[in-house]
Recover the amino acids of this structure.
């Protein structure tokens, strides 16, 4: 799947990367809680990760005050789900796409199914954001505006944890992991990650 999209991304790595950093709206709390969440997960500090990732989701637009827009669950429910998922997370933290066994995939699916981020019906977007911070070697965020539109040509998500897991797994296997293994991409990623002051959002492959 996604052959055309993969070719397009690899053929325009520099242009895409430059366009990302030329954009606006990705500073302040968006970056602060992104980096703090990554640091907390790396330190295996569950309590700090809960605090930082909950704030990260808000900063990344997953909760809006008022009657419209996405709504997150209460903090206690979010914390409880992360605590339940944490043993699987610790098991997966040092795994890479090429080392994932069937048991590892089952553990990753458990994490996805256990997480409770949103009080609204869709789980894919928020769950992927949290997993990307807990397991940055295994996942990147999925969203409607960029990921789904680029890969599927629309922003539609069929609600239901099973169907949403299948979409997430398909994107990981057929797009993210294959791109990450591409030699041009891996060289570009390593180069950018070597200059964190200039490319501070390049925090994982």
């Amino acid at each position: 799947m996604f052959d055309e999209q993969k070719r397009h991304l690899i053929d325009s790595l520099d242009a895409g990367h430059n366009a990302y950093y030329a954009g606006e709206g990705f500073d302040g709390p968006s970056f602060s809680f992104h980096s703090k969440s990554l640091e907390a997960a790396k330190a295996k500090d569950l309590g700090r990760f809960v605090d930082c990732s909950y704030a990260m989701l808000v900063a990344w637009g997953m909760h809006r005050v008022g009657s419209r827009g996405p709504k997150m669950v209460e903090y206690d429910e979010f914390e409880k789900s992360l605590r339940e998922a944490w043993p699987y997370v610790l098991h997966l933290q040092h795994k890479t796409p090429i080392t994932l066994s069937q048991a590892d995939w089952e553990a990753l699916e458990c994490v996805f199914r256990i997480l409770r981020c949103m009080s609204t019906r869709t789980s894919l977007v928020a769950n992927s954001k949290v997993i990307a911070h807990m397991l940055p070697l295994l996942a990147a965020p999925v969203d409607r505006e960029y990921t789904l539109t680029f890969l599927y040509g629309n922003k539609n998500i069929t609600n239901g944890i099973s169907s949403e897991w299948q979409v997430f797994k398909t994107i990981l296997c057929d797009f993210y992991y294959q791109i990450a293994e591409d030699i041009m991409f891996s060289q570009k990623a390593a180069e950018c990650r070597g200059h964190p002051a200039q490319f501070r959002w390049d925090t994982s492959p």
